[in-house]
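User: I'm putting together notes for a lab meeting next week and I want to include a structural view of one of the chains we've been expressing. I don't have a solved structure, so I'd like a prediction I can at least talk through. The sequence is below, exactly as it appears in our construct file.
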Amino acid sequence: MRGHIRIILAVGLLVAISTTPLAAVPPPHPLSASGGMKETEQVLLQTDRVIERARDLVRDAGSIQRTAVAIQAEAFMDRAQQSQRDAWGDFRRQRWAQAANISLKAREYALKAIELSQVEFKAHESLVTLLEQTREMAVEAKAEIRESGRPEAIQWLQTAEDQLRRAQEAYRETRLRQSIRFAVVARDLIRRALDASRGSGPDEVGRVRSDLEQTDGLLLEVEASLREGLGGSDLQTMVQRAKEVQDRSWRAYRDGKPKQASRLTNIARERALAVLLHLQAAPDPQDLQASLNLLSSLYESIQSAAASVDDESIRQLLLRGREHLLKAEREMAAGKIERALNEARASEALLREASERIPSP
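Assistant: Thanks for the context. Below is the predicted structure for the 361-residue chain, given as structure tokens.
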């Protein structure tokens, strides 16, 4: 909470600064030493306030997890503080113009540090919300599931609760990417448990919402990987495009267009999964298994969306994608991780093409 309050303060400070543009600070008049000193001192004092706010934010962001973004924020913070020390040194030497220019540069560094820290806090807040909502889902579902007395439903719920515990444990240990993954799996298992307790599968709207939330979770995990310094700008661009498609998918869902929402979220999830598979150049077996599970879920979603489309080429792409997925699972079971990864990538490419060929409803 303290970190969130500091973000609000920093944003307020940014607004205050933006109402008085930095470029609007008049340069010291060469014939008015006292006026130049006063104006320059105001510039430096304002920068001091920005740096003070930034310092708290950067420290708190770094305490969440030492990601590449947090480290970059710290680097900008160091540059801001050093530049500001230089500015005050020039001020004491009565070099008004030079002191003001260096201080304005220091302020730019501090504002960049604030911006990067806000990225960390936003990601952290999204994960906290995911964990809280998943815990509430489990609590609300437990009574209904146990009342049904269906063994399969109870087993699904117990597995979901175990995944949720692992998500919370990973969060406490600042293994944020793993925490996201466990939480997303837990949510899916809770829904399966509820469906089993009611003796029916999910309706179309419920299935689409589940797919949307799974895509949200995958995007969170991919973004966490990128913040850890994995991947380059090309992958960041892919993720940004996937997020834009996902935003459109949620809008379609809220507008009562589940078929369109399903098609769009499948595209977004496929793009995010492509990034995740690309990041697994030397994959951890658990990470790859999680990706295979996501790929299997994606296949089922695309197959469902394509069921009403009379297009043999889509069916063939799905069939071949499924074959590569099954090969990936067999290679994984045999401990041949690299081969499994290659098969998974082949499956993802085929499913991507199938998804993109499904016409808009």
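A couple of points you could mention at the meeting. Confidence is low (pLDDT under 50) at residues 1-35. The first helix runs from residue 2 to 18.

User: Perfect, that's what I needed.
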